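Example record

The entry below shows one chain as it appears in the dataset: sequence first, then structure tokens.
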Amino acid sequence: MSLLHRTSKLFIVFSLVILSSNAIAEHETVASTGQYDDSNPFARILVKTLKADIVFENKHAIAFHDIAPKAAVHVLVIPKGEYRSMVDFSTQASDDEIVALVRALGETAKKMGVSDSGFKLIANAGHDANQTVPHLHFHLLGGEKLECISVD
């Protein structure tokens, strides 16, 4: 078997694995309430076992670029505490954490250059909203005219 043929077969197998992984990830949703899963990707970013392109950070929140952007600007803003969704955060977070997250949203919009032109904030909570990571997160989208955008 030629090197080109083997390389082609390897590429096809690799592509199928990636496509299968993406298809599974796109359809797996999580509940907005329940026990916190400290192995989720955002928890791993917070403890620095998973890299992220961080654009803003304060004592209680962090913002980083989405790995699969849906707009010219697509940043995720998350609290540093263990909160699955807004339901959890709104009842369990301290006043300091709530203020810090709201400020992080505004500061991130400014830093990304979309505070004047406009941006969308989207937070998915639970199965019906297609939440796929069990950690509260806001998608901050902008940098272009935005139509109806679906984010996972």
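Notes for this example: Residues 83 and 89 are 6 Å apart (CA to CA). The longest strand covers residues 73-79.
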